[in-house]
Design a protein that fits this description.
By secondary structure, this protein is an alpha+beta fold. It contains 13 helices and 21 strands. Strands 1, 2, 7, 8, 9, 10 and 20 form a seven-stranded mixed β-sheet that branches. A seven-stranded antiparallel β-sheet has the order 17-16-13-14-15-12-18. It binds flavin-adenine dinucleotide.
Length: about 400
């Protein structure tokens, strides 16, 4: 039987950060993971360059049944703290789109940095190692694993969400939560492509590969929605705009898509352009849009000259383009999702430490908790910050 102050199940982003923090403060820590390759989600993130944080991070960038829950944890460990850590380890980074920070070279550098921090903090590794059973003792926990029985005073569940089971994601954390009587907010795929009924989608399916900037909204989404690129695919829609809105979208709802947000006065502009032009409407729309989209959009109305369109028809067309209402039939599911939304209900957790209320020593951190970030480095920032929050709390127990 092996005995530690702290056992952390899940050696991903949050688990390693927590282990390094608690270990550096003198706690004996064991980090257990069932995967044979360390931190697979960090490795594949950001196209292999890990979008490790965002310059500006606040509760408004997260979705949760309790939208303010994440505030103190995010304030306790900021993007600047993580940037400082990355720089002290000589990892070069650059800003891409909207404050998103990526490694110049490889996400492997982030993994190596976290592994190094854990090793320096004398964290013990058990990987690959499968936890079969968790039992609460009078004091602490007993973990039955395929690498022996492990006893610990405190248990941290950092097994992430259920998205992309192909790289080792499981519902272990949700099962442990239920075992200890905690409420779980129904898990669902988020940051995920949206799909449509094949009959509805048929006219658009051959637009696969066409991308354009849109403004996309759903009723319960953030004010103003998202202005990002959207991509047509064979089965539906993808691209950053769709991934972002997918976290807010609920089955049965329609999306409102402005396919030309850069031209707020589109109708009037077209009406003004009518006199003195012999251009076909497709040519006119192709000034703003990929030509294939302009052709498809006008396929049924016939490609007549702009001058032949009545003002009313132009206004109707502008309305269709700038408030395209379309109802997805579903998402591409957790196999294709970047994250799981939902998870352990934050009402069960202390806001600063992520400790289960009313217990002395059970913690849930990272994506398994019902705090889901936007696309753009927010999910890693939550993982780092929640790992540090629990690690500090463990160090002071
Ligand atoms: C393709 C892809 C790209 C992404 N890109 C980005 C990005 O660029 N920026 C960003 O902010 N977010 C990104 N994310 C999301 C981000 O990876 C996660 O939100 C983050 O890794 C969550 O950290 P975590 O520590 O909670 O879980 P994870 O990092 O998933 O770690 C969980 C660990 O637990 C282990 N585990 C699971 N089940 C068990 C079990 N039963 N027993 C033992 N161990 C177990 C897993 O093997 C894993 O090592 C991406 C996700 C995907 C899928």
């Amino acid at each position: 039987m092996q005995k530690f102050d702290v056992a952390i199940v899940g050696a991903g982003a949050a688990g390693m950060m927590c282990a390094a923090t608690a270990g550096a403060q003198g706690r004996s820590v064991v980090l257990i993971d069932h995967a044979s390759r360390l931190a697979e989600k960090i490795r594949i993130s950001g196209g292999g360059r890990c979008n490790f944080t965002n310059i500006k991070v606040g509760p408004e960038n997260f979705v949760s049944a309790n939208p303010h829950f994440c505030r103190p944890v995010l304030a306790g460990y900021t993007p600047q703290d993580f940037i400082g850590l990355v720089e002290r380890h000589g990892i070069g980074w650059h800003e891409k789109h909207r404050g998103q920070l990526f490694c110049n070279e490889s996400s492997e550098q982030i993994i190596a940095m976290l592994k190094g921090l854990c090793d320096r903090a004398k964290v013990q590794w058990r990987a690959p190692c499968v936890v079969d059973k968790v039992t609460r003792l009078d004091k602490g926990f007993d973990l039955q694993t395929d690498c022996g029985s492990i006893r610990c005073d405190s248990l941290v569940v950092a097994t992430g969400g259920t998205a992309v089971p192909q790289v080792g994601a499981t519902d272990f954390g949700l099962r442990v939560a239920r075992q200890f009587g905690l409420k779980v907010i129904e898990p669902r795929a988020a940051l995920v492509p949206l799909q449509f009924d094949p009959n509805i989608w048929q006219p658009f399916s051959h637009l696969a590969g066409v991308a354009l900037e849109v403004n996309i909204t759903v009723p319960q989404g953030p004010p103003g929605g998202f202005i990002e690129d959207m991509l047509f695919t064979h089965r539906g829609l993808s691209g950053p705009a769709i991934l972002q809105i997918s976290t807010y979208w609920r089955a049965g709802q329609s999306l409102s898509v402005n396919l030309l947000p850069q031209e707020p006065a589109l109708a009037q502009q077209l009406i003004d352009q009518k006199a003195g032009t012999r251009q076909q409407m497709t040519t006119v729309l192709a000034q703003f849009w990929p030509k294939r989209l302009a052709q498809q959009w006008l396929a049924e109305s016939g490609s007549r000259q702009l001058a032949q369109w009545s003002d009313k028809r132009i206004r109707d067309l502008a309305c269709e383009i700038q408030d395209w209402q379309i109802s997805p039939s579903g998402t591409a599911g957790l196999r294709k999702a970047e994250v799981m939304a939902g998870g352990v209900d934050t009402a069960a957790l202390e806001q600063r430490s992520l400790k289960v209320k009313g217990t002395e020593n059970l913690y849930f951190i990272g994506e398994v908790v019902d705090v889901t970030g936007w696309l753009g480095g927010y999910n890693f920032q939550w993982a780092w910050a929640s790992g540090v929050a629990a690690g500090r709390a463990l160090a002071s127990t």
